[in-house]
Amino acid sequence: MIQLRTLAVVIAVFAVASCGREGPPRPDFPPAPVEDNAPEPAEPASPEEPEPSEDETPPPPSPVEEEIEEEPAPPTPPPPALYELPSDWHGVPGSLLPGSSTVKESTGVTDPSVIAPEMIFPMQEAPAFANSQIFGQGGGGYASGQWPGPGGSENDPRNFDYPWRDNFCEVRLDAKHATDLCPGGKAHKGQDLRPKTCENAVHWLVAPESGWISHVGSISVNIIGAESGMKYKFLHVQMPVPDWVRTGAPVTQGQAFARVSDLLSASSRATTVHTHFEIHGAADVDGALHNGALPPYTSLVESYLDLVDADPSAAEPVAQPSQDKCLTPQLP
Fold first, then answer.
1. Dihedral-angle region of residue 245 (phi above 0 means left; psi in -120 to 50 means alpha; beta otherwise)
2. In angstroms, what CA-CA distances link 108 with 179, 279, 299?
3. pLDDT value at position 19?
4. pLDDT surpasses 90 at 275
């Protein structure tokens, strides 16, 4: 009985002690209201950097990368200017060198008509130069000084430069040079053409028209143009010519057939490196029909322009070799 009373007392004491404690709020009860004047929680203070002491040297500022300006690339140089023929690259028809005509101080054929519009320039490449051989630099003149030449050397740059000069009516006195187109009734009857350089037997001649070879001589080749019927004569060609070059052989326009030389005859190299070019046929000249040797100068001017039209720089004069390159040994 005493034990039961004691147990009851312990249970009562435990219950009284438990009633003085607060448990966690029930989830369906609202939280306690917060007063408006309640202080907000303070933010944590950031740590302050210690000030350097007087004895300490402050660290240098962080380097700032400088923006390096790149130098602009130099401008691209313009391409070199193409050579252009000078405005006065050729004299007018009939404008001979002073003192070079049969009747001194007379002019040649001044008719500007192109008598062979079908032809191409009779040399394979430019530059080429239409001028006198016996009255150009290195030339000895004519008739033992009655028509004196300037002397000098064949490779003089003036011989291989512009302007061109007509020399169809240049002085000649022998019967084979008879013509009614020039004062005095006798003349050169052709045009002298120097090639690119004075090198002998180097530069090719080409057919002015398609046609056939009508004659092969000791230093000459003649070609008949199938379209125009004109005869084109070439003198001072290098011999021997290629094997296929023979009378009756066909040629096509622009086909190379012989080289330019200094042959004056089959056994004499007594002239300069050039070709003497003639055109023979029938055409109106100075208002009248002429049959025979016709002035080729204007036809050469026009065909030369066609030659250099695609590449004007090809017409630029070049430096000449030494005089010994312009000559070859005498033939036996």
1. beta
2. 12, 16, 15
3. 45
4. yes
Are 132 and 170 contacting, i.e. CB atoms less than 8 angstroms apart? yes
> How high is the pLDDT of residue 266?
86
Tally the C-alpha atoms within 13 A of residue 250's C-alpha that lie toward its C-beta. Answer: 3
One-letter amino acid for residue 129 of the chain: F
By residue range, what is the domain housing residue 164? Answer: 129-317
- Percent of the chain at pLDDT exceeding 70: 78
Please answer whether residues 274 and 133 qualify as being in contact, where contact means their C-beta atoms are separated by less than 8 angstroms: yes
Q: Is residue 62 part of a domain?
A: no
For residue 203, count other CB atoms closer than 10 A to its CB.
24
Q: Residue 27 falls within a domain, yes or no?
A: no
Q: On the CB side of 52, how many CA atoms lie within 13 Å of its CA? A: 7
Looking at beta carbons, which pairs linking 315-320 to residues 24 or more positions away fall under 8 Å?
315/83, 315/85, 315/126, 315/127, 316/83, 316/127, 317/127, 317/157, 317/160, 317/161, 317/162, 318/127, 318/160, 318/196, 318/197, 319/157, 320/155, 320/156, 320/157, 320/160, 320/197, 320/198
Is the residue at 234 inside a domain? yes
CATH number, domain with residue 176: 2.70.70.10
CB 253 within 8 A of CB 232: no
Output the CA torsion 210→242→249→272 (10° steps).
Answer: 60
